[in-house]
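Reviewers of the previous submission asked for a worked example of the structure-prediction workflow described in the proposal, so we include one complete record here. The input consisted solely of the amino acid sequence. No template or homolog information was supplied to the procedure at any stage.
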Amino acid sequence: MSGERTLRKHAQLIFRAALAAADPAKAVARHLRVQNGVLIAGNTRYRLRDFDKIHVIGAGKAAAAMAAKAGPWGRQQGAAFLNVKYGHAQPKLRWIEQNECGHPVPDANGVRGAERIAEIAAQAGPRDLVICLISGGASALLPLPAAPVTLEEKQATTKLLLACGASIHEINAVRKHISRIKGGQLAAMASPARVLALILSDVVGDDLDVIGSGITAPDASTFADVQGILSKYAIEKKVPAAVRERILRGVRGEIPETPKPGNAAFARTQNLIVGSNAQAVEAAQTQARKLGYRTLILSTEIEGETRDVARMHAAIAKEMLSRGRPVKPPACIISGGETTVTLRGPGLGGRNQEFALAAAIDIAGRENVVILSAGTDGTDGPTEAAGAIADGHTLARGVQKGLSAQHALAQNDAYRFFQPLGDLLVTGPTGTNVMDVHLILAGDPSALR
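From that input alone, the workflow returned the following structure tokens.
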């Protein structure tokens, strides 16, 4: 067991390195600076004297932390307002109003905040700059339902999408078409003001029209796509009637589509990705190498049903232990992305806890192997845990406490399996969100270089 203890300690050190690399304030500072009266954002330069007011708006789990390096702007400071998840506000940022609201299911506070953000954007003039801070969670945190959809009907639709196993791309496509602010509509509201969107990506592939439901980016999805998504998951008759009505009217062309590429608003909009899962995964690799492991980044675009992806990772772990492939142990394989869970039971947990549980079943009895799966935002599903960690003895320790891993997996109840074992990974709110990190550590740690 001493080998597993070392591997567990190292896995947590490697994950912490990934978190540090995803720090939102540092991410913004790497891409945004002022030099000789010029605001430099990536490769774009803004002469500050050209603007009467600089407004700062945004939403997301990391939006408040991002704001630490995105203002204030002295005499040019305009309106400043953020929608943030409950518990994710930054009290020291007194120059910007922070409105705490619901995530992943939107609430009335979110609607009030979204209305204020839309108002700020709509009132911006042609000599104003609107800095928009967008991070993971922005889509749920900016609920501005489009008629005839109500907040309650949007909540019900979100719950159905989360439960059916739809991908974040699919969920956001639906959200954009029952919203007044998503799918590029915020950029259209702000026109003719200049818009600078600073984006911390929480989606596979860093697609601008998916992150935060693309509030400042052209929308590639259509009402017809949304109709197809509802049909694919057999929920077209389960969503509220008002949602069905709006989608059908959109398909018939009775409601305008979301802004598409070529819309004039986007000519004055810059979308700049300041951080992503790739940076977190690369930092994890650097830390693993410092500890002496041979490393391999498997992918930063991991998607699919959680338990299936976890079993694939477990198979790789067994292959390394048995045959030294694809990396000779002691080794650390790292991946990132965002899987989905299809709810089959009434249990408690999240995709990362389910990932660790499914992997634990497949590596049961193996020595010197540890698998960690955790969300960089510090919350996994409706729990306080970021994820969980498992090894070849996890199932046996569960049996000693009267727990069945197979039953817990069948009931989507990973939280109640890992909690008595002390194997939940609890970080508290991290202030960032660049999806998930999965680690496989395999091999005798006494052989580390």
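The mean pLDDT is 95. We consider this example representative of the routine output the project will generate in years two and three.
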